[in-house]
Amino acid sequence: MGMTQHAEPAVTTPPAPGPKETDGRTAQRSLALRLLARPDVGVFLGAVAVWVFFLISAPPVRDGGSMANILYQSSTIGIMALPVALLMIGGEFDLSSGVAVITSALTASMLAYQLTVNVWVGVIAALIVSLAIGFLNGWLVVKTGLPSFLITLGTFLILQGVNLAVTKLVTGNVATDDISTMDGFSGAKKIFASSFEVGGVQIKITIVYWLVFAALATWVLLRTKYGNWIFAVGGNKDSARAVGVPVTFTKISLFMLVGFGAWFVGMHNLFSFNTVQSGEGVGQELIYISAAVIGGCLLTGGAGSAIGPVFGAFMFGMVQQGIVYAGWNPDWFKAFLGVMLLGAVLINLWVSRTATRR
Predict the structure, then answer these.
(1) For the chain, what is the total number of helices (H) and then of strands (E)?
(2) Which of 7, 160, 346, 350 has an alpha carbon 20 to 30 Å from 113's alpha carbon atom?
(3) Interacting residues of 303 by C-beta distance below 8 A, sequence separation 6+
(4) 69-106 pLDDT, tens per residue?
């Protein structure tokens, strides 16, 4: 009798799960290390440290009104630090941004007063002038290939001289005339220099603009094609151009964005004080750049964020007003800023190296 044999299928027992093998390239870093690798986290911790220091050493800082004043000072720095930071991420920087603020305010004030027109005419003319200055800076940088340091240093010197010379020629003084009684002034003041009350504390409108601009800049950097272009041209403009990034448009538009920021802050200064001193603005460009650097933007371009400069500007405002509230000699302000800048850069460098060390 024939017997049919059936072969039983071989049963393979899967190996017991063990620890997943990883090498140095695939090992996952802890959440803490990944957070520390972000420069904006480092500046946030620095801002908290500066705030706590002045809370202890300057009791008036604990008052709501004092804190509102600190935020106001920070906002006037931070609004300009944001476009300066975006420009730095794009691989360039602008030494004329400080005096450009005054150029914008002088243009609006003198044009409106001397021609006896509605102040909004001066405001619009100032916007055109500010954007034109930004366009000229960007166009010269792109077309000549010269470093933006040299181009904008030249613009800085030109604007500084023109601000003073034209103001003296037109008004016979170093300051513009008071425009507070002119048509359109009250409406413009509500937009650029008003305040509102929250819990009995007066809050300047620039604080709101500062935070809104920061949120918008963050969205642009992280969620739009234009944000990718900014990082690309800052990292390597030749490689960016090779993959179709419009390098010329991106760089010129970034300089014009700085011009827009200068216009906005200039209008705030004008409608806050009704007049403008033509010699102001010198040195402010270093504060804007420093706030961006403290916020993690590299001078070499290609890296940074919009959130970091917000905390950088807050640190500057905190120190500026904290020294006053502590009753210290305000002559030490610039020294504090220098120490803070060097300290922040060194700490960010140490944190970054620590976080990326295998």
Answers:
(1) 14, 2
(2) 160
(3) 39, 89, 231, 234, 296, 297
(4) 999 999 999 999 999 999 999 999 899 999 999 999 99
- The model's pTM is 0.86
Please, how many CA atoms are within 13 Å of residue 260, restricted to the half-sphere of its CB? 11
Model pLDDT for residues 132-154, shown as the tens digit of each residue: 999 999 999 999 999 999 999 99
Q: How many residues would you count in the chain? A: 358
CB 340 within 8 A of CB 294: yes
Residue 351: closest CA among 42, 14, 67, 18: 42
Please state, as a whole number, how many other Cβ atoms lie within 10 Å of the Cβ of residue 178. Answer: 13
- Amino acid making up residue 163: N
Q: Which residues of 211-225 are buried (b: 16+ CB within 10 A; e: fewer)?
A: eebbeebbebbeeee
277 three-state secondary structure:
strand
Beta bridge partners of 195: 204
Element housing 354 (H / E): helix 333-356
| CB within 8 Å of 241: residues ≥ 6 apart | 247
In the chain, % helix, strand, coil (3-state, to 5) comes to 70, 5, 25
**In 90-147, where does DSSP find H-type helix?**
97-115, 119-144
**3-class SS string, 290-315:** HHHHHCCCCCCCCCCCCHHHHHHHHH
Distance CA 76, CA 314 (A): 10
Helix (H, G, I), strand (E, B) or coil at 198: strand
Cβ atoms < 10 Å from Cβ of 1: 2
